[in-house]
Amino acid sequence: MNSRVTRTFLLIGLPVALVLVALIYGGMELWSFLQTSPKFAVREVEVVTEGVVDKEMILRRAAIPAGANIFSLDLEEIRERVEKEPWVHSATVVRSIPNKIQIHYRAQVPRAILGIGSMYYLNSEGAPFYKIQKGDSLNFPLVQVEGKLKNREGLRERMEAALRILDTMKESSVFSEKDLGDMTVRLDAEDGAAPYLLTLRFPPKGLLKKGGQTNRLYSVSFGSDVPGPQVKRWEAVVRHLVQQGKNPRLIRLELGKKVVVKLAR
Predict the structure, then answer these.
(1) Residue 31: its pLDDT value, please?
(2) What sign has the CA pseudo-torsion 157, 160, 162, 165?
């Protein structure tokens, strides 16, 4: 029995073991060659994406040493450095054999301006990514903040919800961006209170009679529910008020299917 096992090991097990050892050793030698051969030294770092971010800024963020071996570089660390550029939303870093590193990125797109002490651009996820400097465009909706939240994620979620309301309003045939004043987000709104307050001009430009003027400001309060049905109720109320020749001071939409209108005196 033992001699049969020994014979089987010598015929099958030992050759297999030797092959595995050879493969491991060969793999180690190959990896050592890849990491040390001058053939794989970085000769070019290419920013593939054509976008708003200056390519030189991307290269400075990447900080890839000239002549570094492309296989010894930590691509994840390079990606993280590139993503520290405020106008880069996300990045991908890849090797292009034999001696090139390529960087792709997705640029940040401003959706609104957050007023919270200083002013910042907000992206589509509701995250502030860039502190606005003198000369930067202010041609975006202004979102102001009242109250405080204990964590940044809660603030981001509220900002994202505010942007959803603005996006839904923009889909309405009654809405015009020229009607828009600003939006206030009440971070510490208690149960039953409206967390979002939008300032608009009345009557809406889309319902303005020929020769008429849009010169009154009023507020529209929104709840945390899906904004679509709330906007539909707002449309119906605004059309009715225009037909009746009445001017609103406040339209409350956060009360479910019930809508409360306070008229201007």
Answers:
(1) 45
(2) negative
